[in-house]
Amino acid sequence: MPDFDTSLAEILVTALLAYLAGSIPFGLIVSRAFGLPDPRGIGSGNIGATNVLRTGSKTAALTTLLLDAAKGLVAVVVARAVAGEDAAQIAGLAAFLGHVFSVWLGFRGGKGVATLLGALAGFSTLVGLTAMAAWLGVFLVSRISSLSALVAAALTPAVAFLLGQGQLVVATLFMAIVVFWSHRANIRRLIDGTEPRVTRNEP
């Protein structure tokens, strides 16, 4: 973690605002705007972009993906500009946790992958791009979104360390643990060989 120079009051306010922003359920909002079914009633039952894709709209899924990623990126960038690097890391973590445990949805939400990638890009462009490349590479080979997310999350703390971003190791390790927790059902299906793939012709 970086040195903490920002006051406790500023850190707490930053964390609260970032958490509330991260809690915005864009998957649900976008689905309603597109006239699509509630994504919580299909597939894995969460509000993430992969599940929105299962409602039948690639455009809605892409919109959800970009908005969820923006929650993490914007939280980090704004907190850094207003308060500093310590606040930026707290904001990224808070926005990520807001997405996974949304206060607007009874502390349920998405699995955190897009918001994680957005926050990582805010923390460090190189670390963020490396995580995105890992996700994309695994996905192109396996066509399994959850496996791609798990690999990218698991690699990120080591990548941050190897790229000389040691101050990010604690934050990225914590986020990776939460991603694995949110994917616990997917992990069971991966072990059983029953995790569904995203087909090339999926609507």
Helical content class: 55-70%
**Portion in beta strands:** under 5%
Q: Could you tell me the number of beta strands?
A: 0
End-to-end Cα distance = 42 Å
Number of helical elements: 10
Largest sheet data: none
Helix-strand string: HHHHHHHHHH
Provide a short characterization of the protein structure.
The protein is an all-alpha fold and about 200 residues long. Helix content is about 70%, strand content about 0%.
Give your account of this protein's structure.
- This protein has 203 residues and is an all-alpha fold.
- It has one domain (8-192).
- 68% of the residues lie in helices and 0% in strands.
- It is built from ten helices and no strands.
- The protein has helices spanning 8-22, 26-33, 49-53, 58-82, 85-100, 113-123, 125-142, 145-162, 169-182, 184-192.
- α1 packs antiparallel against α4 and α6 packs antiparallel against α7.
- The longest helix has 25 residues, at 58-82.
- The termini are far apart.
Architecture blueprint of SSEs:
Layout: H1 8-22, H2 26-33, H3 49-53, H4 58-82, H5 85-100, H6 113-123, H7 125-142, H8 145-162, H9 169-182, H10 184-192
Helix pairs in contact: 1-4, 1-5, 2-4, 4-5, 4-6, 5-6, 5-9, 6-7, 7-8, 8-9
